[in-house]
Amino acid sequence: MNTLPYTGVERSLHWFSAVIIIWIIWALDSGFYVSLFEVSMALKGLLTFINISLTTVLIPFFVVRVSLAAWRHVLVARTARLPVERLASFVHGLIYLVMSIVLVTGVLMMDQVINVFDLVFIPQPLEDPYWISLFFRMHVFACIVLAVLVALHVCAVVKHEISGRRVLANMWFKR
Ligand code: HEM
Ligand code: HEM
Q1: pTM for the model
Q2: Atom 31 of ligand 2, nearest CA residue
Q3: CB atoms within 10 A of CB 106
Q4: Cα(92) to centroid(ligand 1), Å
């Protein structure tokens, strides 16, 4: 829980990245479209293309978000009195750290040009198959850790709401 109200920019960045991350983890990790439907290779390729484009677009937004969060965490560390506030601040910091690892390893494991919606083309950063495969394994592992942290995060929000602490109102858009 956070005692400082979030700004409109922070709220927008939170929900923008939350929607993308939940979609990516669900779509890629559960392979739901493969298990539910008999998908063609073309459709699978299209979904991978959209997912890679979306997560690459997320990177600059993530940099802005982490900068704003770093400032917030400094303020909260100074003002937060309750252990639960410090714990929340620690877990949020952990989410940012794991997200950075997911984004960096995602880029480094690419074995082809990073094609962002056919508009921007970023060269493949590494050539050595050893490093590409190592970063792929790190990416998969970091994604699992991120999925667990997100699940814990959502459970914590539900728990706070049930016990009467309206944390969602702090992150939701006010009229
Ligand atoms: C349905 C899904 C989600 C809900 C309901 C939700 C809700 C919230 C709420 C209410 C807060 C404010 C907590 C407070 O006042 O301290 C918050 C903060 C946060 N959320 Fe989420 N969230 C969701 C998904 C995600 C996802 C997918 C991520 C990223 C992987 C994420 C990362 C964060 C982070 C890092 C913060 C701390 C912001 C900061 O203080 O810098 N959330 N979330
Ligand atoms: C927060 C952002 C990201 C999340 C949550 C995420 C999540 C995932 C997940 C869950 C998988 C499936 C792993 C498995 O095989 O079990 C995956 C695979 C993959 N990711 Fe990421 N990723 C992110 C960012 C990136 C970025 C920035 C890139 C590259 C620019 C990238 C490239 C890939 C590629 C190429 C695959 C393999 C896809 C396939 O074989 O269909 N990811 N990602």
Answers
A1: 0.91
A2: 106
A3: 23
A4: 8
**Residue 92 domain flag:** yes
Whole-Å CA distances, 135 to 30, 98, 103: 20, 14, 11
Range of the structural domain that residue 163 is part of: 8-171
Nearest to 21 by CA among 129, 120, 123, 147: 147
- Look at the chain and report how many structural domains it folds into: 1
**Cβ atoms of residues 34 and 44 within 8 Å:** yes
Domain-embedded: residue 3: no
What digits encode the pLDDT tens for the residues 76-135? 667 656 787 778 888 999 999 999 999 999 999 999 999 999 999 999 999 999 999 999
Which residues does ligand 1 sit against, CB inside 6 Å? 1-2, 14, 17-18, 21-22, 69, 72, 88, 92, 95-96, 99, 150, 153-154, 157, 167-168, 170-171
Q: How many whole angstroms from 54 Cα to the centroid of ligand 1? A: 19
Quote the CA–CA distance of 140 and 63 in Å, as a whole number.
Answer: 22
Domain of 42, CATH number, reads 1.20.950.20
